[in-house]
Amino acid sequence: MAKPVLLNVAVALALTLVLAVAACGGDDEDSIAVGAAKAHEAALELDGDAARGRKAWTTAGCGACHTLSSSQADGTSGPNLDEVRPSQRLVVDRVALGFRAMPTYQGILTPQQIADVAAYVAASTRR
Ligand code: HEC
After folding, report:
1. Is position 15 within any domain?
2. CATH code, domain with 88
3. Number of domains into which the chain is organized
4. I want to staple 56 with a disulfide (CB 3.0 to 4.6 A). Which of 100, 117, 120, 127 is the partner?
5. pLDDT score for 13
6. Residue 121 falls within a domain, yes or no?
7. Whose CA is closest to atom 34 on ligand 1?
8. What are the pLDDT digits (tens) for 54-104?
9. Whole-angstrom distance between the N-terminal and C-terminal Cα of the chain?
10. Which of 97, 114, 108 is nearest to 44 (CA)?
């Protein structure tokens, strides 16, 4: 009895590995990159609204990683945005495309919400 059970376990493990490798395959990553590039392009074309952007900031959870006094956010794993005072363009770049430990928000925020959150961060760090 012991042998077939072990065999089944081995087969199950092998299948899991194959599926895991397939899930990390180039196709998924490519479509995320394409989606991010499209969201980036679209967001750059749109006018952001800072009031709506404030809500997008909260729902997107940016404050978990960033400090931004205007939203009482005190995250520390990302740069302190009160100090960086990023341009609207830099916010659109990072939020749409992601960068190193900064996640892309493509598929999470709409291009309009990306433009809005950029308007909010830029405006709230320039007072
Ligand atoms: C999981 C943590 C995390 C979340 C959530 C997150 N960020 Fe970031 N962010 C980072 C990190 C880390 C960096 C620095 C990336 C690097 O330069 O290596 C960064 C960089 C940035 C930068 C560029 C700052 C600079 O000086 O280069 C901006 C602007 C920014 N984030 C805005 C946002 C906004 C807006 C949101 C919400 C939509 C957000 N981030 C959500 C971690 C996060």
Report:
1. no
2. 1.10.760.10
3. 1
4. 117
5. 59
6. yes
7. 62
8. 999 999 999 999 999 999 999 999 999 999 999 999 999 999 999 999 999
9. 74
10. 114
pTM exceeds 0.90, yes or no: no
Q: Look up the domain containing 101 and give its range.
A: 47-127
More confident residue, 84 or 17: 84
Whether residue 30 lies inside any domain: the answer is no
Q: Is residue 111 part of a domain?
A: yes
Gap from CA of 12 to ligand 1 centroid (Å): 39
* Six-digit token string for 85: 């005072």
Residue 101 Cα, ligand 1 centroid: separation in angstroms? 8
Give the 3-state secondary structure of residue 67.
strand
Ligand 1 in reach of 100 Cβ (< 6 A):
yes
